[in-house]
Amino acid sequence: MKRIFQVLALAAAVTGVSIGNVSNAQTVSVGDMSSYTPPSEAYPSIDASVGGYVGDLATPAGHHERVQRLAPRVASHGGYETCGGCNSVSCEGGCYSSGQSRRGKIGAALNDPCASGWMNAELLLWFPQALQSPDLVATGPNAAGAIQGGPGYQALFGGRIEQGMQPGFRADVGRYFSDGQFGVGARIWFLQGADTAFSAQSDGSPGSPILSRPLFNTSVGTEGGFLVGGPLGPLTGEINISSQLDMVASELYGKALFIQGEDYRMDLIGGYSFFNIENDLLITQSSTQLPPSPAARRVVLDSFNTENNFHGGQIGFQTELNRGRFSFLSLTKVHLGNMHQRVDVFGTSRSDFVGVPASLQTFDRGLLVGDDQQSQSRDVFAFAPEANLKIGYRMRNHVNFTVGYSFIYWNRVALAGDQIDRNVDQTAVLTNNPSTSPARKFNDRGFFVQGIDLGISVDY
């Protein structure tokens, strides 16, 4: 009798559990046994396997738990590190150094829970190295003082030509692969062409300044000058000089993880580099003879243009160190390859006689450019070390503000001012007579650019 009551009590308890899981659409199917019913919140003490059905159908009552999905942690410029994972199936964004699971707006927009790429945009405030040339315009208290080395000689333009600050732009975009072990990227930058201009005039009246173009006169073997304007003559005249420098670069590169720690990462970088550096120097002079001399006007133009195209490879290291919201980044590399240099010179002049009869003569030479005006080009091996240092501050998830310093040096660059020969046969000026001076030059030298970078970095 006692055993019968025990069986009936157990059967009544199981019946109560089954009634709570009645369904007209499914049968019990949990685990390997169709009759298995796991513990319920109403009857936590019952965990046995009992055969039985209540009604025709019953819903399964299985145990659910959220699946933990592991997600990599990304540094401020991409690259995966180990993190604790995300807390839900949806993985609410990538993981950061704090271990939190978040999703920035850009990552959500691209449907990528953990950042694996980078985009950088920077304003460049760079200062190119000063250009060089012989003295191109000078003045003095008298005719002797306007000649280089004379008493009271003063150079007005030439020698050291400062370019000042040149604004520019740099963009860098790329993406990591193979769990952050490898990445590929592209970078481009340019500087807005800097135009350094100079202009001087003299009306030829008594007391007006003497303007002269200093040179070495090979016909007599002494220092001399070509008069632009002043009371000597007298001449009214003006001279205009412009110097322009343009730079643009592009790169395609790959990076591979070299070493990595909890707060730092170093990548080995290698790829292709292209640089274009162009420099133009234009000198125009116009002078008119004043009475009582016969009215005559002369115009002289000298133009020097250089272009340098570098094609080669690059190798270096990129390092990133993170401390809370702050980060320190360094990029050091060297570019090795071929520099194709080209030098073009052009000169022309003319002489107008305003009288009876009037006359006009033109000549295929200027003052500093002779009759040899063919384009010249050559290829030389060149190298260019580069360094970028930045400090970043994470303003929002995926977004960093950076301030940095950049430096690039090229060991062989042909520049316009270095192609000028100040040795001039003055007897051949304003004529078509052949002359060996000024001679053609093809010079190059080291050149650098440096400055400040202000940028935004976005990880996606």
UniProtKB/TrEMBL annotation:
Organism: Roseimaritima multifibrata
Keyword Signal: yes
The protein, known as: Outer membrane protein transport protein (OMPP1/FadL/TodX)
UniProt KW keywords: Signal
Signal peptide: 1-25
